[in-house]
Amino acid sequence: MKVHYLFLLSMLAFSSLPADAKTVEKEERFLIKGKSLSIELDMDGGTLQVRPSHDEQVCFINITYPREKCDVDIRYNDQRGQLDIVVDNDEWDRKNKDRDDAPVVLLELPSGPALSLSAHIKAGETNFELGDLTLVDFELRHWAGETTLDFAEPNRTLLRTFDVNIKVGEVNLMHLGNALFEEADINSGIGELTIDFSGKGLDRSMARIDLDIGETSIILPQEIGAKIKVSKFLFLSEVNYPHWFDKRGDYYYSENYKESEKSLYLMISTGIGELGIEVN
After folding, report:
1. Cα within 13 Å of Cα(63), Cβ side
2. Which of 15, 35, 127, 128 has its CB surrounded by the most CB atoms within 10 Å?
């Protein structure tokens, strides 16, 4: 009798669930046994949150998405150390972020293995918290939307590749001095761009910054020796340099450039808009 009663309760609970639920939640947890992990993320639209995992060897993924309008595929190859995440949602309208058919992706990265992360986003809002990871390669392609990227804590190893390309939208790149990058490529199409190079990890680094249309703010730490070369787009570009820099030939040098053991070389190509450089 007790067994039949429990069975009846389970059937009633199941029947009370909506047969045509609009959203689906998919969750995966992978124990990374190897020394490296390569992640390929391909997402049409929605909201993406990337942050460190609570476990140094566990990669956690949670995706909420519309059942009828979105296909999700998560595949992990343990032998090759390869994780592929595909969120296919062509019908999503990025102009309306509050729609129920906007996928929401949470990706938590382990800090133990060496990470190579490549993310291709068509539209939406992305937030990357990349501090205190063992990140060796990072590539981001974002066609339209808001992008925030922050190295709040120093990266655990040298970052060989740092490549960010945003076509349209507001971009905030924070504490890049903690990224420990050798070379960085930053490309902004149309919108507002803020690049903050503060942090503890800059040694001898170089960054290529390509600006098309919009307002750009670059923040430099005072303790770093900086050398800057700016290529302006005729009279349509306005560049504001602080008094901390002296112009010699085609280059601007910070007052402490020769004395500082750490240096940052910026090659900036400006388009239409205003470029402001601050020293903190």
Report:
1. 22
2. 128
Q: Which residue's entry shows tokens 């390569």?
A: 38
How far from 5 is each of 1, 13, 15, 16, 235, CA to CA, in Å? 6, 12, 15, 17, 81
Distance, CA of 173 to CA of 186 (rounded, Å) = 10
Distance (Å, rounded) from C-alpha 122 to C-alpha 41? 11
- Angle ∠(117,217,266) on CA atoms, nearest 5: 65
pTM: 0.85
* Separation of alpha carbons 167 and 38, rounded Å: 25
Calpha distance 11→8 (Å, rounded): 5
Please count the CA atoms within 13 angstroms of the CA of 69 that sit on its side-chain side.
Answer: 19
End-to-end CA distance of the chain: 75
For the ranges 61-65, 67-71, 161-165, 264-268, which has the lowest average pLDDT?
A: 67-71
Mean pLDDT estimate for the chain: 86
**Cβ–Cβ under 8 Å, residues 187 and 141:** no
